Amino acid sequence: VETKPIETKTKPIETKPTETKIETKPTDTKVEIKKPVETKKPVETKKPVEAKVEVKKPVETGRGDTGAVKARAATEYRNKNFTGAAAMLKAAAGSASPAAAKELRALATTYEQFGRLYNSGMAPGAKPTDAYVALRSAKNYDSSSESAFQTEIKAKLGEVATRAIGLYIGRGELEQAANAVRDAESYAGESGTTQAARKNLESRANELYTQANKEMATKPDEAKAKLQRVIKIVDSKSPVFAKAKKLLES
Hints:
Structural class: mainly alpha
Number of helices: 9
Radius of gyration: 54 Å
């Protein structure tokens, strides 16, 4: 028996290619851009400041230095040769510049005036009131120049002021009496004379205040003048001083 081979038809299996989709996400690659490093500017070196030295012109002292002649004149002044000291300065002024000459003549005048007042105040036979006035002025002249006689003048002032107090009160010169009391106590100390004078001045001040108080409405100018006297002849601690000042300011 002839056997035919059986044909087996097998259809080829169609295999569809499977698409494999690979998703590739783009990766953000951030490129970090670094800022360039700031390089500090080099420190500017300032140019050294040129120190300007101001050369002051020497003060003009005239034709020649007047310091030497003033020193010699001061020595004569301290030796109580007041006229000689003044003459020396005046002679030097003749050959000095205008500015220096003016200064020398002014000092010469001070020496002359001081000498006149000093000699008058120190004179043994001088009246106490005259001596007191002269020495007060002499003290001021001396303090403005050499201050060579302050101690001597103050001692004499204390003496003559004490003697002048009674004379001033007797003449009704109450302001001068009050000044003499103050100087006497400053340069010679408190005494029975100054204490009695203060009581007298206090009494006079009260009289003046009473008169001024009555006249203020009718004679204001005269009243104010009396109140001003009250303030000058008593100390600020006095009760009548306070009353007079209050009435003046009302």
